[in-house]
Design a protein that fits this description.
The protein has 130 residues and is mostly beta strands. The chain has strands at residues 3-7, 10-13, 18-25, 34-39, 46-51, 58-60, 68-73, 78-83, 92-98, 119-120, 124-129. A hairpin with a 6-residue loop joins strand 5 and strand 6. It is globular.
Length: 130
């Protein structure tokens, strides 16, 4: 049974930090590309960050560049999202997502779209107060 379980969300003041974790099980995590997406109330789900199966390449939304860092530990089947300098506009449910195991996507553009990911977690709420 495939599971992606996010943790680490919460309430933080603007300028603060949070570290999200996503624990994976039930599939070959070490061969899956991983992504973080988020959805704010009344808005569409949007890309935040992604990392290749090997960890050799990372991709970020413009809103995340310079503030967020995605990383993974294939020995622990876990992907992380370190979020610094948080802003109220970062308030959203944050989702972890995994591709079907099989290596790199054929184009870097695929890392940015939710359709490239097959498995999804339930999400963790991040709330940033001003």
């Amino acid at each position: 049974q495939v599971q992606l379980v996010e943790s680490g969300g919460g309430l933080v003041q603007a300028g603060g930090s949070l570290r999200l974790s996503c624990a994976a099980s039930g599939f070959t995590f070490s061969r899956s590309n991983m992504g973080w997406f988020r959805q704010a109330p009344g808005k569409e789900r949007e890309f935040v960050a992604a990392i290749t199966w090997s960890g050799s390449n990372t991709y970020y939304a413009d809103s995340a560049k310079g503030r967020f860092t995605i990383s993974r530990d294939n020995a622990k089947n876990t992907v992380y999202l370190q979020m610094n300098s948080l802003k109220p506009e970062d308030t959203a449910v944050h989702y972890c997502a995994a591709s079907v195991p099989g290596g790199d996507f054929s184009s870097s553009s695929y890392y940015y779209t939710s359709r490239s990911y097959y498995y999804w977690g339930q999400g963790t709420q991040v709330t940033v107060s001003s």
